[in-house]
Design brief:
By secondary structure, the chain is of the alpha/beta class. The chain is built from nine helices and nine strands. The strands form two sheets. Strands 7-6-5-8-9 form a five-stranded parallel beta sheet. The longest helix has 19 residues. The protein is globular. The structure holds phosphoric acid mono(formamide)ester. Phosphoric acid mono(formamide)ester binds next to helix 2.
Length: 352
């Protein structure tokens, strides 16, 4: 992507695609500078306003974005629950976005339905940042993960990463795999119960790009070969019928870590439920709290890129009647959306 075209962050490919890491390099370089010289940035976004629209609960993403904007001298408004807004009266997503775009300079939104941020970007005169859409993607978590890997390990690449847990509904692992595909020398081990394995669209992407991956049935099987272990919780809120309790094979304990490499990096987007036992926290290889902290600085870096952009009239959008078959796609609740396909013919809202 040309830097000048970077206006909305909907998919991680908006920052990293086709092996081009230049936008990421710029974000990471500024991340380092912000950490080193925080005071210099304290007025950088004075006068700018961020709308924080979280239609789903959040601790890290919501508050780290708010902290990031405040640390840059900007202001924030938003809601605690969409039920406290006119969404409750039946207002469409398009109209909610039109309104909030006219009150702000950037919109950060999380939504339980896949494709909501892409839909929002069609009606917004300000940049839209996807803070997680259903089980699909979570690109700013991935920026946090990459910043952590680069900082802790010195570079991104030349490692074997195990992704463990709910790989089906865990949006962070989808974005992370797409992002890591732009860096060299990475092998992937997918560790999950059969019912929660990596979705076909991600596996298809891996095969299409010749990314080396294997599947393992438990952490114990994979752990000795791993350089990075990315743990995830079971996304119980997205499951219908599947068992949301992991068996022992997907739970990391201090005892299991005895068989791991000395320089293993353990990440988790958090929140955790029971998949990492508290006795792991004191292990120097556990980096998940550091990872959450870095989320503020990489989001500051992102806000500096996007929140200063001029407002632009929203694109003219055909009134749609889109016919995606995926019931978890935003086109099922916002019936006016135009049909948009990816270059390979999938629904661009939900990737199905
Ligand atoms: N990692 C993450 O997205 O956490 P929250 O759900 O608390 O924002």
């Amino acid at each position: 992507m040309d830097k000048n075209e970077f206006r909305h962050l909907i998919n991680i490919s908006d920052v990293l695609s086709d092996g081009d890491t230049s936008l990421w390099d710029e974000l990471y370089s500024r991340f380092r500078d912000i950490i080193a010289h925080q005071r210099i940035y304290s007025d950088a976004l004075r006068g700018s306003v961020m709308a924080s629209l979280f239609f789903e609960p959040s601790t890290r993403t919501k508050f780290s974005f708010q902290s990031a904007m405040l640390r840059l001298g900007g202001s924030v408004f938003g809601f605690e629950s969409a039920d406290a807004t006119s969404v409750k009266k039946g207002e469409s997503l398009a109209d909610t976005i039109r309104m909030n775009a006219s009150y702000s300079d950037i919109i950060v939104m999380r939504h339980p339905v896949a494709g909501a941020p892409l839909a929002a970007s069609l009606y917004s005169e300000v940049p839209i940042v996807n803070a997680g859409d259903g089980g699909r993607q979570h690109p700013t978590q991935t920026l946090t993960d990459l910043a952590t890997l680069a900082t802790v390990r010195g570079k991104i690449g030349d490692f074997t990463i195990g992704l463990c847990g709910d790989l089906k509904y865990g949006r962070t692992v989808h974005s992370l795999v797409y992002a890591l595909s732009n860096f060299p020398g990475i092998k992937y081990v997918f560790i999950s119960p059969n019912s929660l394995s990596m979705p076909d669209n991600v596996l298809g992407f891996m095969r299409e790009h010749n990314l080396p991956f294997s599947q393992a049935k438990s952490i114990d099987d994979a752990l000795p070969e791993l350089d990075v272990l990315y743990m995830t919780r079971a996304q119980a809120e997205r499951m219908s019928g599947e068992d949301s309790k992991y068996s022992d094979g997907y739970i990391l304990t201090a005892k299991k870590l005895e068989r791991a490499k000395k320089d293993l990096t353990i990440l988790h987007p958090l929140p955790r439920v029971n998949e990492i036992t508290p006795d792991v926290d004191a292990d120097p290889r556990a980096k998940y709290f550091e990872q959450a902290k870095y989320g503020v600085f990489i989001r500051m870096s992102l806000l500096l890129t996007l929140a200063r952009q001029p407002h632009e009239s929203a694109r003219a959008v055909d009134v749609g009647g889109c016919s995606c078959k995926n019931e978890k796609c935003i086109t099922h609740t916002e019936l006016y959306l135009p049909k948009i396909l990816t270059p390979d013919g999938r629904c661009a809202y939900c990737d199905e």
